[in-house]
Design brief:
The complex is a heterodimer of chains A (about 425) and B (about 425). Chain A has about 425 residues and is an alpha+beta fold. Chain A folds into two domains: about 5-210, Cytochrome Bc1 Complex, Chain A, domain 1 (2-Layer Sandwich), CATH 3.30.830.10; about 230-415, Metalloenzyme, LuxS/M16 peptidase-like (Cytochrome Bc1 Complex, Chain A, domain 1). Helix content of chain A is about 45%, strand content about 15%. Chain A has helices spanning about 45-55, 65-75, 100-110, 115-135, 135-150, 165-170, 170-180, 200-210, 260-270, 275-285, 315-335, 340-350, 350-355, 360-370, 380-385, 390-400, and strands at about 5-10, 15-20, 25-35, 80, 85-95, 190-195, 230-235, 245-250, 290-295, 305-310, 410-415. Chain A is globular, with a radius of gyration of 23 Å. Chain B has about 425 residues and is an alpha+beta fold. Chain B folds into two domains: about 1-205, Cytochrome Bc1 Complex, Chain A, domain 1 (2-Layer Sandwich); about 225-420, 2-Layer Sandwich (Cytochrome Bc1 Complex, Chain A, domain 1), CATH 3.30.830. Helix content of chain B is about 40%, strand content about 20%. Chain B is built from 14 helices and eleven strands. Chain B has a six-stranded mixed sheet with strand order 1-2-6-3-5-4, sandwiched between helices. In chain B, strands 7-11-8-10-9 form a five-stranded mixed sheet, sandwiched between helices. Classes of the chains: A alpha+beta (about 425), B alpha+beta (about 425). At the A-B interface, helix 2, strand 5, helix 4, helix 10 and strand 9 of A face strand 5, helix 3 and helix 11 of B.
Chain lengths: ~425, ~425
């Protein structure tokens, strides 16, 4: 059964998608602004991230305490999530609380007061989080990989949390300006999924956001991405740790590239299917070297990364990297088998009912479709798009994406002689 | 929901949920790390890993994809009271899921090479956990709070046991506990109850019951004074934990304790599989206000999980960068003293009940989550305990919460742990 959501544009340019699912008495609300970390000013990395910690700490008409009481009293947790491109308010509430919770979220989104004392407190939290990351080999390896794949200040290579220095330097004026520049109805996509009638949801969203008048600065366009032409290897010694983390990757393609579906299937077979695909078979199952190993494809507005990650004993780092190299080389040279392609395809198509089982899952699917302009019938078309991919397509994707001699490899943990390589 | 027992003792629960074309199958074994003896710590968890490696009728090379070809996902976990396995897939995979679980119960192989290969995987998992100072402190705190009960050692086991355990140790443990009379099978989803029961009987009915399992549980002596530990290790961030012995799930004092936790740190619900993936609503909670709002901590979390026997209520605090641990502990204990002294208000109790009610509804949004709750409670106590929990929570009074606060949060029942980061060389 297809989702068939309704899509409405309000007069002020805000977009609304609604899917009524009266199976449980709950509603998922997913409000996405096109104001992710890519919108951070060049001299203020971490601004969007800090704004996400402060935006719900008081509004023009509610104190921070009132906001907290309204959410907590209804058992609602508001998650505020910043990705490269989106700044999202996400929550699930009881159906009976839908209208007041939406009104509260609208107030938070449109009219945050950003009090100085709240900014000071949240800076302390943000800096503590950055310090925790500094002590986490998996985070250090991945952040370093991204910085190497996206050099020269490219927004995909920056830490979205910023640095301790940049966070300390952020002022209320800076956050107010960021909000004024980026938060506007034309940049809002509101997705409502759950036990609420579509027309009522539309009325409530219009009531909350219909009167919002603001304009946003032009969208930030990520600069072009230059693929690596040589192999790079970086070691981040963390001799106080027990296990080493490996991050190994490449830049790939844009989400809008017609070859996306071939890349997706290739990645599933290579590093996801049934506990890590080919990588899991080799490194975890046959060699017993790692508790976790997998690959992730993150095709985005710009050419996103394909990253391979593994956690291994320090003694097994070299062997694990060599095994990844071997699997990359084997995939590029020999491609997938027809059986592997068929398995991956059946898995992706067959897993759609699970992905679309919960209200939050549906809301996420619709928000993603809206962001990448995939169409309201994307859930119906997706099986066909995957079915149309041929073995030649996925093997061409592997050759395009990967080559061991131009891989970027980062190792963080108790490895080597303790010197940075 | 229909509950029945097969002739071999297998407990079977079936619940129809026709909201999506899916079915979720869970098979629960009443064995967890508390059942392990010295020298074999971690054996329950290691057996869980081995039970994904092929059976007599599922050759090793056919394990991969056996459920994924139906678009499904499968997994398992081991904790202190239980070991469980699940598959969630399209409803046409029901027979496949039941087949996998029946094979897992009766016919796992434990090939020596696989046992050896998995030894290094599990040691890697242990080392990965040690990389996280918060997890390391939690493990040490639990080991300090318990000195006799099997809850004291970590589910993953101690390293020396993982290095020396043999294939025969693993297989013997598997054969002892993986028997139908020690298991609960749960089926939830777009199924017909009678049909599902017929299929369950077809797959499991011929498995012979095992010998009755004798369980000798040491009762943890009442703690008679505060215990403390400090881990000093290179790191960047300080962590503080306080653990208090708390009632088992079947104890009438458990519902008031859940509400006390909701007042202190926000309600988490009672679903070990899903609740803890969504942070609690806690901005107005007492400890959040006392620690996070005052800039002493970047996070505070309370953990109170329903367990078969009395376990721990653990409060975990991430100390804000640059703040010494001592004043954070003082602020934490001051708040706990206040709730012991003054109890909670009627308004706080109303809010805590509303939060728990909402969380328990949110936790029932998928066939996987519903099936988990049925099996989890059947394993540690009974399904009735789960279905009656909303009414039990609704009936709790402010006096009962105050009594619980006085009893549970007493200093002599407390274990305090610090992770003091040393400068990274």
């Amino acid at each position: 059964m297809s989702l068939s959501p309704t899509r409405t544009s309000l007069d002020n340019g805000a977009t609304l998608l609604v899917k009524a699912t009266p199976k449980t008495p709950i509603v998922a609300i997913n409000l996405a602004m096109r104001a992710g970390s890519i919108a951070d000013p060049a001299d203020a990395p971490g601004a969007a991230s800090l704004l996400s910690r402060v935006i719900d700490r008081g509004t023009a008409t509610r104190s921070a305490t009132q906001v907290a009481e309204e959410l907590d009293g209804r058992g609602v947790t508001l998650n505020i999530n910043v990705t490269r491109h989106l700044f999202s308010l996400l929550c699930t509430c009881l159906a009976e609380d839908f209208a007041p919770v939406l009104a509260l979220l609208g107030d938070i989104l449109m009219a945050p007061s950003l009090p100085d004392e709240e900014i000071a407190t949240r800076k302390g939290e943000a800096i503590t989080a950055i310090r925790q990351d500094e002590d986490n080999p998996a985070v250090r390896a991945m952040e370093s990989l991204m910085a190497l794949l996206y050099p020269g200040g490219h927004p995909y290579g920056r830490r979205s949390k910023g640095s301790i220095v940049s966070v300390e330097g952020l002022t209320r004026e800076r956050l107010v300006r960021l909000h004024a520049d980026r938060f506007a109805p034309a940049a809002l996509s509101a997705v409502i999924v759950g036990d609420v009638d579509a027309s009522r949801a539309r009325d409530e969203v219009t009531r909350v956001f219909g009167g919002w008048r603001a304009s946003s600065a032009p969208a930030v366009v990520p600069p072009p991405v230059t693929p690596a032409f040589a192999r790079r290897r970086v070691v981040i010694p963390m001799m106080n740790k027990s296990q080493a983390d490996i991050a190994y990757g490449f830049t790939t393609i844009r989400r809008s590239d017609p070859a996306y579906y071939a890349f997706w299937l290739m990645n599933v077979a290579f590093g996801q299917y049934a506990l890590g695909g080919r990588l899991g078979d080799s490194i975890r199952e046959r060699q017993g070297m790692a508790y976790y190993v997998s690959s992730t494809l993150d095709a985005n507005v710009a050419e996103g990364p394909l990253s391979i990650r593994a956690g291994v004993s320090p003694a097994n780092v070299d062997r694990a990297v060599a095994s990844i190299d071997e699997e990359v080389a084997r995939l590029v040279a020999d491609g997938l088998t027809p059986k592997e392609l068929d398995e991956s395809r059946r898995f992706l198509i067959g897993s759609m009912p699970r992905a679309l089982e919960t209200n939050a899952g549906i809301a996420n699917f619709l928000q993603n479709g809206e962001f990448f302009c995939l169409g309201l019938d994307y859930d119906e078309r997706l099986p066909g798009l995957l079915t149309a991919v041929t073995l030649d397509d996925v093997n061409a994707a592997a050759r395009h994406a990967m080559a061991a001699d131009r891989a970027t490899v980062v190792i963080a943990g108790p490895y080597g002689d303790g010197r940075i390589e | 929901m229909k509950q029945t027992q097969l002739d071999n003792g297998l407990n079977v629960l079936v619940q129809e949920e026709h909201t999506a074309p899916l079915a979720s199958v869970w098979c629960w074994y009443t064995v967890g790390s508390k059942d392990e003896r010295p020298g074999l710590t971690g054996v329950s968890h290691w057996c869980e890993h081995m039970n994904f490696k092929g059976t007599t009728n599922i050759p090793r090379d056919q394990v991969k994809g056996i459920i994924e070809q139906f678009g499904g996902a499968w997994n398992g976990y081991t904790w202190i009271d239980q070991t469980t396995y699940l598959e969630t897939a399209t409803r046409d995979a029901l027979d496949r899921m039941l087949f996998i679980e029946s094979e897992r119960m009766a016919n796992c192989l434990y090939h020596p090479d696989d046992c050896e290969s998995e030894r290094t995987v599990i040691i890697s998992e242990l080392h990965g956990g040690e990389n996280d100072p918060d997890q390391l402190l939690d493990q040490e705190l639990t080991a300090t709070a318990f000195k006799a009960h099997g809850y004291r050692h970590p589910t993953i086991g101690w390293l020396s046991d993982l290095e020396t355990m043999t294939r025969d140790d693993l297989y013997g443990y598997y054969r002892r506990y993986y028997v139908p009379n020690n298991a609960t099978l749960v089926i939830v989803g777009d199924v017909d109850t009678d049909d599902a029961l017929r299929r369950a009987n077809a797959h499991f009915g011929r498995i012979a019951p095992g010998a009755a399992i004798e369980r000798r549980a040491t009762v943890e002596p009442q703690q008679s004074g505060e215990r403390r530990l400090t881990i000093q290790k290179e790191g960047t961030t300080a962590y503080l934990k306080a653990g208090y012995h708390v009632a088992a799930a079947t104890d009438p004092r458990f519902a008031p304790a859940l509400l006390l936790d909701a007042v202190l740190t926000g309600a988490k619900g009672v679903n070990l599989w899903s609740s803890f993936r969504v942070p609690p609503p806690q901005r107005s909670a007492r400890l959040y206000r006392a620690l996070v709002e005052r800039g002493l901590a970047s996070s505070v979390h309370g953990s109170m999980v329903p367990t078969e026997q009395p376990y721990l209520y653990t409060l975990s605090v991430t100390v804000t960068d640059g703040t010494p641990i001592a004043p954070v502990e003082a602020a934490l204990l001051e708040e706990l003293d206040r709730v012991r002294r003054d109890g909670v208000t009627e308004a706080e109790l109303v809010k805590a009940k509303a939060q728990l009610r909402a969380r328990m509804i949110f936790d029932g949004d998928s066939v996987t989550n519903i099936a988990h709750q049925l099996g989890y409670f059947a394993t540690i106590a009974s399904v009735d305990l789960f279905t009656s929990l909303p009414a039990s929570l609704a009936a709790v009074t402010v006096e009962e919460v105050a009594t619980t606060a006085r009893d549970v949060l007493s200093p002599s029942n407390r274990t305090v742990g610090w992770f003091e980061p040393l400068p990274v060389q």
